[in-house]
Amino acid sequence: MKTTIKLLFVSAAMLVFSACKNETKTEGDATVVENSATANSTSERQGQAFIEDDESTPNILQIAIDSPDHTTLVAAVQAANLENALVNAGPLMVFAPTNAAFEALPAGTVENLLKPENKDQLAAILKNHVTPGNYSKDFLKKFKKLGQAGGQDVTVETKGDDVYVGGAKIIASVPAGNGIIHVVDKVILPAN
Known about the structure:
single chain; 192 residues; alpha+beta; seven-stranded mixed β-sheet; 9 strands; 33% helix; globular; Adhesion/Biosynth-related
């Protein structure tokens, strides 16, 4: 009997909740149900990256956005529309080039990549900085290669206490809610 009452209560609560969230409109002969949150903001970007969450541990994208040393990386991620990829549950390792690393590229490279017509090329370069997993710098010393999200492998080299991934030196590591960010001093370009 108690189980039946609990089920009825939960069902009633779900109905009330769903009724509060949805609006019903009639357009001609069709009935359209819209979520009130999306009905008012159809022009806004959608996905996990755009949900505000001040409660949980910051994810990779949130940390990058808050870093003054990664404004170019964030602009590139936004230009390639890859924000949602960096907030996935992961775990992910992102090798995040600093602004100085982007500035070291030949003049005009970054500006050219940020153009809408070069979005696919930019996305390929950025995916070359992401690996599934959550490994510390010291644990990475055990690897010879890492498979990147772009489908290519990058070499891992150890020189003393320093670790280089795809030729980029890890200069800092920051844990995130969905993985780890390894700050690197160089942009890791795909082989082709």
